[in-house]
Write a structure and sequence with these properties.
This protein is an alpha/beta fold and 391 residues long. The chain is 49% helix and 10% strand. It folds into four domains: 70 residues, no CATH class; 53 residues, no CATH class; 48 residues; 158 residues, Ribonuclease H-like superfamily/Ribonuclease H (Nucleotidyltransferase, domain 5, 2-Layer Sandwich). β1 and β2 form a beta hairpin. The radius of gyration is 36 Å and the shape is rod-shaped. The termini are far apart.
Length: 391
């Protein structure tokens, strides 16, 4: 038995009940049950999805303040929304509009096991065609998407192996090691998509001390050496590995930031690593048959200012230059490199749990001189930079 004829006027509440029933029972079945034209029921459903109960109220005798007015308000709202929408939010690597749309689609897909998709789209205010497009893309991913996911996993793995470095350094490292050319911007997006953040250590600032020279500062931040072994800097840094205290003394050539000497000890205050590193530098100078004197810049530590140490410098035509007392900013190259090196040793080389610290330091020095690209050298290694300069 038919409940009402086609010409019977229905209230907005009754139309709402019929529309909701059609979402569950189906459009054709519901239209046949209430003797309603399928196109009329489709129009009711569309208006109900767009404007709710107000869209189902009768517009007889009304002017533009009725349905047309609601359409105008909707268009105005959409235009305002588009103006406020930042284009960059649609990027695949950001948690913008598309990211939250995917979350809505995932919730809808889970709930669709219990309720109809049409009803869920209506309640959640989700475009049904957009949902089905997302399902199709999920089941049939494009080649571009698959390649991007491979790149994300590869970059994530390399980032985890080199946690102390950012995306620019990683781009140069990947190109050098694997021959794969990836722009720094693309690596940045992949890292952001994967949630990768580089790690670093933080150190307390020390206020510069008063001048108390033993030797004059001959450099005064003019670190532009014209040839190898012209200006050398040195400093000692400390660290713990498996609860054991270590002191590491490094010598850097400012021409290409190469480590030209080092010494390691597990005894506090031991002078041996200072002399071991210096002897390595002297051997290099003799091997290269260096003409002219070299400058060694250090702080005013007790070993650096000792008579035995400076006598060795004088005998090998090395001029000593010193920073002001308590002023590490007078030796920025060594201080910054020591910081980066310790970060890499602990984060990338797992120095904290190392069994053979000396072997690890030697392995790292080779990696540093021959494999590690540096920003100040235009992402070349120290060895490559020196070779390109003809030395």
């Amino acid at each position: 038995m038919r409940e009402k004829s086609k010409n019977t006027m229905r209230s907005a509440e009754e139309k709402e009940r019929i529309v909701l029933e059609s979402f569950n029972e189906g459009r054709n079945k519901t239209a046949s049950k209430y003797d309603i034209n399928v196109r009329v029921l489709t129009r009711w459903r569309r208006r109900y999805q767009e404007f709710g109960l107000d869209g189902l109220r009768s517009q007889t005798g009304k002017t533009s303040h009725g349905y047309n007015h609601l359409v105008g308000l909707r268009n105005k709202k959409n235009r305002t929304r588009e103006k406020k929408r930042v284009p960059s939010e649609r990027s695949w690597f950001k948690k913008g509009i598309r990211y939250y749309q995917r979350l809505e689609y995932e919730v809808l897909e889970e709930l669709s096991k219990q309720y109809s998709v049409s009803l869920l789209c209506n309640v959640m205010d989700i475009n049904r065609s957009g949902y089905y497009k997302w399902k199709y893309r999920k089941a049939h991913p494009s080649k571009r998407y698959l390649q991007r996911m491979k790149d994300v996993e590869f970059i994530k793995e390399e980032s985890n192996n080199h946690k102390a470095h950012g995306y620019r350094w990683l781009a140069a490292f990947i190109q050098r090691k694997y021959g794969a050319i990836m722009s720094p911007e693309y690596i940045y997006r992949c890292r952001k998509y994967a949630g990768v953040i580089c790690e670093s250590k933080h150190y307390k600032y020390k206020k510069p001390g008063e001048s108390n020279y033993i030797y004059d500062n001959l450099v005064w931040n003019n670190w532009n050496a014209s040839k190898p072994l012209e200006i050398i800097v040195s400093d000692m840094t400390t660290f713990y590995s498996k609860g054991i205290y270590y002191e590491l003394t490094l010598y850097f050539d400012t021409f290409n930031r190469e480590i030209v000497g080092f010494g390691l000890t597990d005894r506090k205050g031991d002078i041996k690593p200072y002399f071991e590193g210096l002897e390595q530098v002297i051997e290099l100078i003799k091997e290269k048959e260096q003409t002219g004197s070299s400058i060694l810049h250090t702080d005013q530590g007790s070993v650096y200012s000792s008579k035995a140490y400076n006598k060795l410098l004088i005998n090998n035509n090395i001029i000593h230059s010193m920073s002001r007392a308590g002023t590490p900013t007078d030796n920025p190259i060594d201080e910054s490199l020591n910081g980066w090196i310790k970060d890499e040793l602990f984060i990338d080389f797992n120095l904290k749990k190392c069994d053979d610290v000396l072997s690890l330091i030697k392995e790292y020095i080779y990696y540093y001189n021959h494999e590690r690209p540096m920003y100040c050298l235009k992402y070349k290694t120290p060895h490559q930079h020196k070779t390109d300069m003809g030395y």
